[in-house]
Automatic annotation (TrEMBL):
InterPro entries: DIOX_N, IPNS-like_sf. GO terms for molecular function: metal ion binding; oxidoreductase activity. Keywords: Iron, Metal-binding, Oxidoreductase. Residues 67-166 form the Non-haem dioxygenase N-terminal domain. This is Non-haem dioxygenase N-terminal domain-containing protein.
């Protein structure tokens, strides 16, 4: 990665962004790979230029935001309840882009085990994770950094491991060993 020149107000864009993005992507190491390599400055591909920031996006003071909560408690009791839940999901998706589901029937133990498996995956050596690195969305199991890496104005500081369960769920052997239920 090319060293960046950052100060409080600007990023000097004396680099080839597409080249930087490709170099980052080609490592197949993701954001954690950058951290593990010992970087001391955030690469410019992750920095939003100050002139593109809007003061409207700044949340100063006390702003109370609450993620929509969708309750599945009575989802199987009839068409009206199901229709209402579908409408709530649609509304939350359109306005927030995300929502929380409650009363889904999945035990906390199972959810905790899923989170532990994901943590174990991300803590593996880069060489192991590279086996799953792909931008090929149709793959059942893939690891990637920044879904819209080449489209967004700035990259997100995030890595993802994704498991596609439909239309055909992956076989147990397709899951990384550290993510399998034991």
């Amino acid at each position: 990665m090319v060293d960046t020149h950052l100060n409080q107000n600007s990023v000097v864009l004396d680099y080839d962004r597409q080249k930087e993005l490709k170099a980052f992507d080609d490592t197949k190491a993701g954001v954690k790979g950058l951290v593990d390599s010992g970087i001391v400055k955030i690469p410019p591909i992750f920095v939003i230029p100050t002139d593109e920031l809007s003061c409207e996006k700044s949340y100063s003071g006390s702003t109370h935001l609450q993620v929509p909560v969708i309750d599945l408690k009575n989802i199987h009791e009839g068409g009206v309840q199901r229709k209402q839940v579908v409408e709530e999901i649609q509304q939350a998706s359109e306005t927030w882009g995300l929502f929380q589901i409650v009363n889904h029937g999945i035990s906390e133990d199972v959810m905790d085990d899923m989170i532990k498996g994901i943590r174990r995956f991300h803590e593996q050596p880069t060489e192991v994770k590279r086996e799953y690195y792909s931008r090929d969305v149709p793959k059942n199991v893939h690891f990637y950094s920044n879904y819209q890496l080449y489209k967004a104005k700035s990259a997100n500081w995030r890595d993802t491991v994704s498991f596609s369960m439909a239309p055909v769920a992956p076989s147990p052997e397709e899951f990384p060993a550290v993510c399998r239920y034991s």
